[in-house]
Write a structure and sequence with these properties.
single chain; 114 residues; mainly alpha; two-stranded antiparallel sheet; 2 strands; globular
């Protein structure tokens, strides 16, 4: 039997925060190809490394080191999309059966943000 990951589980919010923080760092390095999927892959592959970086990175709601207007716009839209998705998941009481299923859902919902 799979582990249920409910909408209010810390792993959901953790993955969303990782998308924002790692995504912002990748945007800063001008590496936006498959941003959502790549950010989740980095997060899942090295959670301890992510925690180390998270300590020194600016808060996820801040623009941090972003200076290009296109990156700033994209990041602001991503923050709005993450907020909307969290609300949608809460209202629908969305559950996932695994981290892979959760990640695939997040990728599908957030990949078209621009």
């Amino acid at each position: 039997m799979g582990v249920k990951i409910k909408w209010n589980d810390d792993r959901v919010k953790g993955a969303m925060t990782a998308i924002l923080l790692i995504g912002r760092d990748r945007l800063h390095r001008d590496d936006s190809e498959n941003l959502i999927q790549a950010s989740l892959e980095i997060y899942r592959a090295d959670p301890e490394g992510y925690k180390q970086h998270k300590r020194v990175w600016a808060d996820a709601r801040e623009l941090g080191p972003l200076s290009k207007s296109s990156h700033v716009t994209y990041y602001r839209n991503l923050i709005l999309a993450v907020d909307a998705l969290l609300k949608k998941m809460e209202q629908g009481k969305r559950q996932s059966n695994s981290l892979l299923e959760l990640d695939n859902y997040l990728i599908a919902c957030l990949r078209n943000v621009h």
